[in-house]
């Protein structure tokens, strides 16, 4: 039967997740529509050309709300896609704020570049923003909600089930059954797989037997440190930086997921009387909105967290934490004296308010930057993790005197043992093909070795644009 997958993103890299299924009936189903990130002009060029005609796509299935999986949906719609977008309700809610934020950033950047070009007497060479706020509004109209574990026919002969992936609120692995004359073909796309030790979300769930598996491999060659020790490690950093050194602890964090994990843990430390009296600033309007969505969907959190909610109705807030929306208040933090903890986006430090906090905070040896998430190749975060003497910011060479600390246990991605655990619900002899995506070459090689040892055969690492018959 004619069934193929073409890998249009997150192929031998970690961003731009986008896989096109051509089904036996001739329909075209897109899995994810993510943005390429972190490579400057190279990412921009990839984001402006899909490699397929958006008008020809019949339906889109979205694994979760992170921008590297959802960020090009408004552009897909602006270029003529009119089909349904299937997602869980929490993913839809998070997309609403994340995509609006993404459009706002792009419109702003474009205006800034146009103004600068005009000032310098140059013609504006850049083409417009990738999409606008109006494109986001149009895209949101196309969302159709599908609950977890509820098989739903989305195209004639094709049924979708979302399985909880435990990565961020609403995140899912996608399990498809595709009927054809030769029988049924079952395809599972992992989306991003979460941790089996997540403090907020339940473990990734087992999925039905598949014939073909498309699997993420972000940490395919790495083991995370023990997560159970993370609260004490976090507290240790706060005590050393904020209490002993009287400095600022600056934590770059994704607005969705990581920020809520940190707030939950700070809240826990506060409730147990261990958190020193240090002001905590959450400097991200997007985080505030995302935290509201976590509260709204509290039923999706772990069972013991739901119980905890009965004792403490606000798991993300405590005396001493200030949520900052206004830019003016955010700027005041730059000149603020005394110790503090600041959580701001973006996690990879390429954009957002975190840039200002780094610009002002990196020079002071009393301060520290605590990196709690994955920083993709080419990002500012990746450079900072190499602990350079100086970094270039806003036209200046800024000395890096602050300590650069890392805590990998906050990762929302499964490590190699957890990816093995995720796939262990499968009978390897029945899986005909495994495609590794969403990882660099070393990560994929590492995971391939593990999966081969576990008995999986035909493990491939498709290139960008490669079409594979399945
Ligand atoms: Zn993700």
What does this structure look like?
It is a single chain. The chain is of the alpha/beta class. The chain has 2 domains: 4-222 and 412-469, Ribonuclease Z/Hydroxyacylglutathione hydrolase-like (Metallo-beta-lactamase, Chain A); 230-410, 3-Layer(aba) Sandwich (Rossmann fold), CATH 3.40.50.10890. The protein is built from 14 helices and 22 strands. The protein has helices spanning 41-47, 67-70, 73-78, 89-119, 133-140, 230-244, 258-271, 285-296, 303-311, 327-332, 354-361, 380-385, 416-423, 441-453; strands at 4-9, 18-22, 28-31, 59-61, 85-87, 143-145, 152-155, 158-164, 172-180, 183-189, 212-216, 248-252, 280-282, 321-323, 340-344, 368-371, 390-393, 396-399, 403-406, 433-437, 459-460, 467-469. The strands form 4 sheets. It has a 7-stranded mixed sheet with strand order 6-5-4-3-2-1-22. A 7-stranded mixed sheet has the order 7-8-9-10-11-20-21, covered by helices on one side. Strands 14-13-15-12-16-19 form a 6-stranded parallel sheet. A hairpin with a 2-residue loop joins strand 17 and strand 18. Helix 4 packs antiparallel against helix 5 and helix 4 packs antiparallel against helix 8. The chain is globular. The N and C termini lie close together (9 Å).
């Amino acid at each position: 039967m004619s069934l193929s997958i073409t890998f249009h993103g997150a192929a031998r890299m970690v961003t731009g997740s986008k896989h096109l299924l051509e089904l036996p009936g001739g329909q075209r189903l897109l899995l994810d529509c993510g943005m390429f990130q972190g490579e400057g002009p190279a990412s921009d060029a990839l984001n402006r050309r899909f490699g397929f005609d958006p008008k020809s796509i019949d339906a889109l299935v979205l694994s979760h709300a992170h921008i590297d999986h959802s960020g090009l949906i408004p552009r897909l719609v602006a270029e003529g896609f009119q089909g349904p977008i299937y997602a869980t309700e929490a993913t839809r809610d998070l997309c609403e704020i994340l995509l609006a934020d993404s459009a706002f950033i792009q419109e702003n950047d474009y205006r800034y570049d146009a103004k600068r070009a005009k000032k310098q007497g140059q013609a504006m060479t850049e083409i417009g923003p990738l999409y606008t706020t109006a494109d986001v509004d149009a895209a949101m109209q196309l969302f159709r909600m599908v609950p977890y574990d509820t098989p739903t026919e989305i195209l004639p002969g094709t049924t979708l089930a979302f399985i909880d992936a435990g990565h961020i609120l609403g995140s899912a692995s996608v399990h498809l059954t595709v009927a054809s004359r030769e029988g049924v073909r079952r395809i599972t796309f992992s989306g991003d797989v979460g941790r089996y030790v997540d403090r907020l979300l339940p473990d990734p769930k087992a999925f039905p037997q598949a014939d073909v598996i498309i699997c993420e491999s972000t940490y395919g060659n790495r083991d995370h440190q023990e997560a159970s020790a993370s609260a004490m490690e976090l507290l240790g950093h706060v005590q050393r930086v904020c209490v002993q050194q009287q400095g600022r602890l600056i934590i770059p964090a994704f607005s969705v997921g990581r920020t809520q994990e940190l707030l939950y843990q700070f809240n826990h430390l506060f409730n147990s009387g261990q958190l020193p009296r240090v002001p905590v600033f959450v400097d991200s309007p997007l985080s505030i909105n995302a935290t509201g969505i976590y509260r709204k969907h509290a039923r999706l959190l772990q069972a013991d967290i739901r119980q905890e909610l009965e004792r403490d109705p606000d798991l993300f807030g405590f005396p001493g934490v200030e949520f900052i929306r206004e830019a003016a208040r955010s700027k005041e933090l730059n000149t603020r004296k005394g110790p503090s903890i600041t959580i701001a986006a973006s996690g990879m430090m390429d954009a957002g308010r975190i840039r200002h906090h780094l610009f002002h905070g990196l020079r002071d040896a009393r301060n520290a930057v605590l990196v709690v998430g994955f920083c993709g190749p080419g990002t500012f975060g990746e450079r900072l993790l190499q602990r350079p003497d100086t970094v270039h910011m806003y036209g200046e060479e800024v000395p890096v005197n602050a300590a650069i600390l890392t805590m990998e246990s906050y990762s929302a991605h499964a490590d190699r043992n957890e990816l093995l655990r995720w796939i262990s619900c499968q009978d390897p002899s029945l899986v005909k093909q495994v495609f590794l995506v969403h990882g660099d070459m070393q990560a994929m090689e590492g995971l391939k070795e593990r999966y081969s040892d576990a008995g999986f055969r035909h493990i491939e690492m498709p290139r960008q644009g490669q079409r594979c018959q399945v």
